[in-house]
Amino acid sequence: MINLRRSTTVLAGLVVIPALLGPVPAMADEPEPAEPPRVELVLDVSGSMGARDIEGRSRISVAQQAFNEVVDALPETTQLGIRVLGATYKGENKKVGCLDTQQIVPVGPVDRSQAKDAVAGLKPTGFTPVGLALREAAEDLGTGATTRRIVLITDGEDTCAPPDPCDVARELAAQGTRLVVDTLGLAPDEKVRRQLLCIAAATGGTYTAAQSTDQLTNRIKQLVDRAQETYTRTPTVVGGSSVCEGAPLLAPGVYTDREKFSEHRWYRVPVRPGQELRASVSVALDRPVNPDYGVLLRAVATDGRELVRGVDAGSGRADVVSAGLRWSDDHEDADERDDADGSATTAATDPEIVPPTMVCLVVSNSFAPRAGTEASPGMPVELTVDVVAASPTPKGPDLGRGWVLLALLTVAGLVTGLLTGLLTRWWVATWREK
């Protein structure tokens, strides 16, 4: 009879649960075979690269040596391409010179000798069409599941805008192709620094000033190696809503969205008894913002109660702000009933069929745009969601409960006082006898 009741309860739970959950949670894409990292080095070969101000050597010779060392140390799994700008046109016609960009090594498994020979013959020549070169490099890398990286090495700002290289970087970021541009500056010029910072920030990349051969070589190696640490698949695109009700239902996975300034984006995650929700969010600062900013991640109940507030999870990067949280429902059901054999049989006591708690995740930001900064599209948001078995709570004396702790401290004090008094009396009696 008991087995029959349990079977009926389980069947009822299986029928009712889908209706309570509503739509099926969005699933992150299934893991796919990892693609090899893809990187393209973009080298400025304009006339200014002939300046001899790095350790008494020309900028182009320093870059060529760095390229050779990077190619020698290139991981076998990395696919590398090389594109140049300002390398062939020697004339004064700006319209023609600003189209001067070529891919001299196609993206793919590297023939080291071919790559070195291609770079060795470069001589400082023409204009500096950085924006066009970035756009062409993105096409060279193509699309796919993994993040692509462009490493731009230049000594000057773009002399051919439009297209403005910052606008091109924002354009590439808005396409959602997970393209990162890292920039390396070879000249101590403030305008160049600002432009390269802008390009890097728009795509979640980094900017570095390289003033020596070792600095340039080491930094390029680091950036090429970093390509192997990127995602092996693209996060699932999801659109958060303005309220909890009707927000996207998320299963464990990695998701990407966009959020405007001072906006709140809502998502929902079902969490069953005995499970723990772990979530983190990163917002990329792909445009200029004022320094007084922050990101907040909260878990909220469907009735509006705040369950837990996330904490900052700094990564050390100035172009990304992150936060994370953990939450589990450790409340024991007050309506638990036991069968004649002492085992619970209701749906409310079986974690496999009990309706899960619907938790609303809220991503908020307090970013303030600088004057002239575009609000659209929103800033890139990456949300990671996981639901795991909750960590067991240690059993034993509940030292965290007020009255129990007070009682234990009182008993401990009495025992300590009694022992201290006995020892004191014994010591005094012994001393007097002497």
From TrEMBL:
Pfam families in the record, alphabetically?
VWA_2 (PF13519)
Keywords (A to Z) from UniProt: Membrane, Signal, Transmembrane, Transmembrane helix
Compositional bias per record (Acidic residues), positions renumbered to this chain? 330-341
Entry keyword annotation includes Signal: yes
The record's section on InterPro entries has: CLCR, VWF_A, vWFA_dom_sf
So which domain of life are we looking at? Bacteria
PROSITE patterns for the chain: VWFA
* Signal sequence, renumbered to the chain: 1-28
* Region feature (Disordered): 324-350
Domain VWFA positions: 38-227
Q: Which residues cross the membrane?
A: 403-428
Question: PANTHER family, per this entry?
Answer: CALCIUM-ACTIVATED CHLORIDE CHANNEL REGULATOR, ZINC FINGER (C3HC4-TYPE RING FINGER) FAMILY PROTEIN
Report the protein name in the record. Ca-activated chloride channel family protein
List the source organism.
Micromonospora avicenniae
